[in-house]
Amino acid sequence: AKFSEFRLECGKGKFKEVFIKDHSWRSYVNSTHYKGLYSIDQKQWFALVALAQKATGGKPSQKYLNESKVLIDQLGSDQFKKVTQAWFTHVIALKETVVTQTQTYENREYSYNVIEFLNSLNAEAIKGFVWMSSWFYDKATIQTVSKLAERCYKKIPEKGAAAAGIGNACLYALYASKGLDGIAQLSRLRLKVKQNNTLTLIEKYIDEAAAKLGISSVEVEDLAVDDFKLKDHQLAFTFEDYKGVIVLTGIGKSTFKWFKPDGAEQKTVPQFVKDKFALKLKKAKAIQKQIDQTTASQKERFDRMLRSNRTMTLAYFNEKYVQHGLLSFVINKVIFKFSNATEECLGIYLNNQWIGLDYDVIDLAKFTTVALWHPVTSSTNEVKEWRQFLMEGQIQQPFKQAYREI
């Protein structure tokens, strides 16, 4: 699993490819791309590969990024993204290899297995292309780089992260890309990776992004949550006279409902849609997967928020949570504490309204701040009452709150 090394022989005025010993990565790049996608633009590709192999250090210099931008513009950004994303996707699916090595000591031969993922030279080249990808902020690039980071932080026995250098480059690319989609993926990765030094780096990038916007790190994570244009926790797609609707059913779960031209529901994907709108259907299913991933990651973020004692103004909470297409689903069945200068009350969000233990609708207008309720802040009796409330209503919370161990 080695990345191909390319060299430009300027004196001879032609290109020559030089490979580091390998069976998987070499054959993939050579057969799939070198002779196909970028054979027409060899000059730009060889220059990009040469620059990528200079990717040393923790993050790129501005000079490095500017040089890459010139080459990418000459090649064309669409072609660059098409090829590099295919490379990244191949690395994401790449399996570690077990290499048996032998050594002789005092006339006795010993054999042992070594698990390998990527050669260091090849890893540097991939890291360079990841850095270059920080110029782009489309969803396909952001999603691919995020998945690559997750793969590279996967642990190899007795070695640690499979390719921490590439993973760190992915974190930089997500942080440096325009918009907030990259920050949203950093927030997701913070819940996926386990290495303390990686978590520190993620938090550093989120804090820096927040500082640039002049807000707190938790606020920048709020802003980064995509609402996917959900309405009433649904997203509709039209395929001429047919309609498909993604319906959120749980945290990390959704279903695709299909409707015929006459409005009748159909249990399976219509054959007409499969035949005529295969690409659009594929994109719709990809969006469904992203929605499920987002609700799952936000559940984990709420669990982390519960331990932080975060307090928000009621106006901010209504704008960023209650009126948000996706977060309004995540806060469903969650208990919050509403406060003003003289009083406070607990309420749960059910059927688009806030109710208390007595099932009466709460008048939120008289409160100014809101926070997630933690059972440790209430009496034993109050905690028991909320648990009983949930049991009687057969309400399952999205994360452990009322039944949280104290």
Write up what this structure looks like.
- By secondary structure, the chain is α+β, with helices and mostly antiparallel strands.
- It has helices at residues 25-37, 42-52, 62-75, 77-93, 120-132, 139-152, 164-176, 181-190, 196-213, 217-224, 271-276, 278-306, 314-322, 327-330, 380-392; strands at residues 5-9, 14-18, 97-105, 108-116, 155-156, 160-161, 234-239, 242-250, 253-259, 265-266, 311-313, 335-339, 344-350, 353-355, 369-372.
- The strands form five sheets. A five-stranded antiparallel sheet has the order 11-15-12-13-14. A four-stranded antiparallel sheet has the order 7-8-9-10. Strands 1-2 form a two-stranded antiparallel ribbon.
- β9 (253-259) and β10 (265-266) form a beta hairpin.
- The longest helix is centred in the C-terminal third of the chain and has 29 residues, at 278-306.
- The chain starts with a strand and ends in a 14-residue tail after the last helix.
- 29% of the residues are buried.
Element layout with pairings:
Elements: E1 5-9, E2 14-18, H1 25-37, H2 42-52, H3 62-75, H4 77-93, E3 97-105, E4 108-116, H5 120-132, H6 139-152, E5 155-156, E6 160-161, H7 164-176, H8 181-190, H9 196-213, H10 217-224, E7 234-239, E8 242-250, E9 253-259, E10 265-266, H11 271-276, H12 278-306, E11 311-313, H13 314-322, H14 327-330, E12 335-339, E13 344-350, E14 353-355, E15 369-372, H15 380-392
Antiparallel strand pairs: 1-2, 3-4, 5-6, 7-8, 8-9, 9-10, 11-15, 12-13, 12-15, 13-14
